[in-house]
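Progress note, project year one: complex with zinc ion.
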Amino acid sequence: MSELIVEILEDFLGKPKKHYSGKSQISFDCPVCSDIKGCPDGDGKGNLEINYHHHVYKCWACSETYGTHGTINKLIRKYGNKNHIKQYKLVIPEDKKVVPKDVEHVIDGLPKEFNSLSIERTSSDYHKAIEYLKKRNINEDKIKEYNIGYSYSGDYKGRIIVPSIDENGDINYFLGRSYDKYSKMKYKNPEVSKMDIIFNEGKINWDSNIYIVEGVFDHIPIPNSIPMLGKVMNDLLFKRLVEDAECKVIIVLDSDAEKDAINLYRKLNSTKLNGRVRIVYMPKGFDIADVHQKLGEKGVVKLLSTAKKIKESLL
Ligand SMILES: [Zn+2]
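Model obtained:
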């Protein structure tokens, strides 16, 4: 059975980097990491580790950012083809056939310890949370507009919570950012793959200019923006933009992601969006959240007004 699984995996992941058959452990180049680095034949790192006894996988480099972890079933669905799924179903043992409740796609709303920051409170946690947002130049209006809250107990204790809503207004994701500067883990987000959501999809006006940013704190100061939750756009958002964006799509990535921004520009511009894609070059060492924090709304508007096309010859 295990040889067959290995064969299926090799068929779409290529040559394994390491294989400990005694432990049922095998590693390959991660398709997501390789894609980000622009190496279609693998980045040579072998970060994607699979245990075919437990039927799970995880990328040691990008699982946090891109949700590259889960069941082998999910791995094959994402990166294999129909044939691989068929073959896998034939070799999979009975007890693995019942896939646990699909936690990969949906969350059950906000954590129960969520408290809105729009309601003034006297607790020190409330003040710490507000203080943190103030430092980032996020005022009461923005707190209301984005329904920003915080949690002083439970799994998201000590975190600002920024909810994301889907088209029906249902919560499809949220960001948990620590407001305690000594916290080791800055972000704690729900265990849903970021590949399967468009953050605050329900807030987007598709008939107006749309700004593409990296993170949620870049999204808050820019009206009609969508954070990619990383430097790479998921297929879902890409498809939605191509199909539904009626005006311009303006890419506003961090200064350290200029290459990613240009790649994204090229990709979008080669679709129906041709001629309607723009780019904003960020000052060195900055992201838009920094610009907002230091220069306020005016600074953001000024920077966004520099959006321009990339010369054909540079593409
Ligand atoms: Zn990876």
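The first strand starts at residue 18 and ends at 20.
The two ends are 48 Å apart (CA to CA).
No further modelling is planned for this target in the current period.
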